[in-house]
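User: Show me sequence and structure for the first protein, then do the same for the second.

Assistant: Starting with the first protein.
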Amino acid sequence: EEGQISPIFILQQFISTYCQENSVDEVPHANMLAAVKKIASDYSLDDGEVVMLLCNALITQADLEKDQPSPDDAVNQVAKFAFLFHRYVKKPKQQKKLLAYINALYKKNKKKLHFVPVMILQFYNEYLLDASVVRDWASKKQEKSSSFAIKLATAVKPALDFFDELEKQ
């Protein structure tokens, strides 16, 4: 709606204000979680929409706003705020939202496609993605014929290879 402040903006402002006053590690997780819950309530967001809110407020900012962004920037954001994601990423449906976010983010920035396996592995390492959900998503990408879907499926391959290695061990 016109004139309404974006929930992404509100969350980014809250986090930047809080993080200027304290390091993220010093901010009580309960305070940050309460802020996210309040935003979700105020905007009537379901868990999947909150996942997208968190991605857009936390990862996009670190990932793309620098002159020379690195996959480490996005990975650090995921690691730093994993506790927020844990509340909302419990089912495959919400995990698919993480993958949809990755898809949308890198569709806009095809030069950053090499970030994809790094992001997927970080979400996996933080127990936010199951390998089976990633495999299912990647196989659906491979079935599509668009050049971006094929490039994305190819970019995911290192993560899938990692999952295969884990299963062999």
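Switching to the second protein now.
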Amino acid sequence: YRNHNDNNNVTNSSNHHQGVVVTAPIIPKPPIVMDPKMSKKMSQRSSAGQKWEDPSLVQFPPNDFRLFVGNLAKDITDTKLAEAFQSKYASFAMAKVIFGNQDGKSKGYGFVSLMDPKDCAKAIREMDQSWIGSRPIKVTRSDWKERSLSEVMKNKKKKRRKRNNWL
């Protein structure tokens, strides 16, 4: 059981001995620094015949295991989504709720990034249909990698080769 106090310290209640409180500072995770060429590649997207750049993808760590979290209540923020996963999964990296460009309101879904594939599978099993706020959430593996421009191009080449082999 952990208590957070105003000094960004964590007090472990099992360490209360004769009125002495042992505290440890919370160490923030270092920012992820990426090669600009890689970030350009990662942000190019393709779907439904259209291509665009998505700069928000660069915020996620490379080689993560990303979950799609759907059916989020409109009042759920990045912080609330992160709290739901961070306390249960040690490899939690970040959470992001998607908001509309025009009105700034939540679109009702978001993404959670985990660094361990076992945590990813465990989160899908445990968190799917669990409640965050006023709704049960839907948790599945995200297909964001399949939508990257490089993956779309690879898949098109494979389809062409297959088709040519049949002729």
